[in-house]
Amino acid sequence: MLTIVLIVAKKPGNIPDQSTWILSPDASYVYYCANETVDGVEYQYIPETNGIPLVSDMSSSIMTRQIDISKFGVIFAGAQKNIGPAGVTVVIVREDLIGNAMKVCPSIFDFKNVEANQSIHNTPATFSVYVMNLVFEWIKSNGGVPEMENLAILKSEHLYDTIKNSNGFYSCPINENCRSRMNVPFRVGGDGGDEALEEQFLVETKRLNMHQLKGHRSVGGIRASLYNAVTYEDVDGLVKFMLEFQKNHS
C-alpha cells in the first residue's frame, strides 16, 4: 500500500518545524526536495523519518554540502545544476530497496533493471556522462565536497549580508533558517519590490555580462544562482554592483 504524507508550509519561503510533522507509520516513503530553486528554500538538515525510507531530490544542491548517505533510501539528482549538462540523472539507492518499484513503473526507471545492466539498460547520454566525470575530477582536485560546501557558505553569506545591510533597499522574503545557498531571491526597492528599479537593475547587470538574474516568472524580482561553477569573485562582482546601484538609486 502506498501512503502519501503531505507537509504544507503556512506561507511561501518557510519550512514547517519538523515537530509539527505527522508521519503515518505505514507510509511507503517520505519525499522532500532538498533545495527548491524558484523561491530559494533549502533544508539545512536531514529530516528524521523514524525508519520510513527517505527519498530526496537533490538536483540543485548535490555536491554542495556533506551529507550522511546512510540516512536515505533514495537520492536522485539531475546533473544540470552542479555536476554537468542536462541529460543525466544520478541515482543513489539503498540496496534493500532495489527491485521494489511499483509494477506501473516503466522498466527504464526500475532500479533492479538499471543495476543488473550496470546503468546502461538504455543507451546513455555518453557526452553528458563524460562531462559529468570531468566535473567530478574538477571538484575532487579543488578540495572535494567539503571545499564546495565552504565556498557555498562564503558566497551565499556575502550576498545575504549585502541584502541585510542595505537598510531595506534590498529584501529577501525567505525565512533565515531555510535560505538557500544555491538560489538567492531578492527584491529591489523595498519589501514588495519596485518593478521599474528591478528592470533597470537587470539592464545594468546585463551590460556587465551578468545574465539570468531575473526572478522566476511566478514570483518576480531578482534571483542569483550560486552553483559550484560560480566563483566567489563572481559573487563579489555582483555585490559591488549592488552597492553602487543602491548608492545611485536610494
Automatic annotation (TrEMBL):
Q: What is this protein called?
A: phosphoserine transaminase
**Pathway recorded for this protein:** Amino-acid biosynthesis; L-serine biosynthesis; L-serine from 3-phospho-D-glycerate: step 2/3
Mention any one GO cellular component term assigned to this protein in its UniProt record: cytoplasm
What terms describe the molecular function in GO for this protein? Answer: O-phospho-L-serine:2-oxoglutarate aminotransferase activity; pyridoxal phosphate binding
Q: What is the lineage of its organism?
A: Eukaryota, Metazoa, Ecdysozoa, Arthropoda, Hexapoda
- Domain Aminotransferase class V intervals: 7-238
Keyword annotations of the record: Amino-acid biosynthesis, Aminotransferase, Pyridoxal phosphate, Serine biosynthesis, Transferase
Catalytic reactions on record: 4-(phosphooxy)-L-threonine + 2-oxoglutarate = (R)-3-hydroxy-2-oxo-4-phosphooxybutanoate + L-glutamate; O-phospho-L-serine + 2-oxoglutarate = 3-phosphooxypyruvate + L-glutamate
What protein family is recorded? Belongs to the class-V pyridoxal-phosphate-dependent aminotransferase family. SerC subfamily.
Name the GO terms of the biological process aspect.
L-serine biosynthetic process
- Pfam families, per the entry: Aminotran_5 (PF00266)
